[in-house]
Amino acid sequence: MRLILLGPPGAGKGTQAQRLVEQHGIPQLSTGDMLRAAVQAGTEVGKRAKAVMDAGELVSDAIVNAIVAERIDQPDCAKGFILDGYPRTLVQADAVEAMLAERGIALDTVIELVVDDKALVGRIVKRAEDAKAAGQPVRKDDNPAVFEERLREYYKKTAPLTGYYYAKGKLKTVDGMASIDAVTAEIDKVLAAAAK
Ligand code: AMP
């Protein structure tokens, strides 16, 4: 199964992706996680991405496309994968099409988690508080000021992807404001219907 989770920051893509990993035994490919790992490791990519990420802006298409192209060739992706936070621009969406076509594979479904913007800042603040309480590092971009920029980037560059995938007949929408379990159940239904 090859799946894309779409939705603004704080929509619950990461949470749902982790559940899908457990249920389906395929990896979650989060470009945000991969970039944070690169920053942490101090790689060339990490050095170039850090300031952009801290400002809540998008890292260049060339960088993220290269990271994903390399990642999907790893053996654990052979049965499929969940793309979380990628693609985020139309250029990336075209790139993923090309990557999959080159490998003779196709995208199964794109699921958009539809959420109310007003609830998102609260979710991000809570995520930062939870991380702190658990003794985990708090993401530098999980604060209201940077969040506003992330949301602006989402509407400018990522929201058009819903139209892109709708036109391809791949888009399914799920109410992301429901409880975590209810969202999981709805995603399960969508995937079961798509598999028929
Ligand atoms: P995320 O963890 O998905 O919220 O991503 C955190 C940050 O990483 C974003 O605000 C961007 O700066 C960067 N990033 C993650 N994925 C992408 C992507 N597909 N394209 C560009 N930048 C990305």
UniProtKB/TrEMBL annotation:
Function according to Swiss-Prot or TrEMBL: Catalyzes the reversible transfer of the terminal phosphate group between ATP and AMP. Plays an important role in cellular energy homeostasis and in adenine nucleotide metabolism.
Upper taxonomic lineage: Bacteria, Pseudomonadati, Pseudomonadota, Alphaproteobacteria, Hyphomicrobiales
GO biological process: AMP salvage
UniProt-listed Gene3D superfamilies: P-loop containing nucleotide triphosphate hydrolases
Pfam families linked to this entry: ADK
Name this polypeptide is given: Adenylate kinase
Protein family: Belongs to the adenylate kinase family.
Pathway(s) where this gene product acts: Purine metabolism; AMP biosynthesis via salvage pathway; AMP from ADP: step 1/1
Organism encoding this protein: Mesorhizobium atlanticum
The protein's Enzyme Commission number: 2.7.4.3
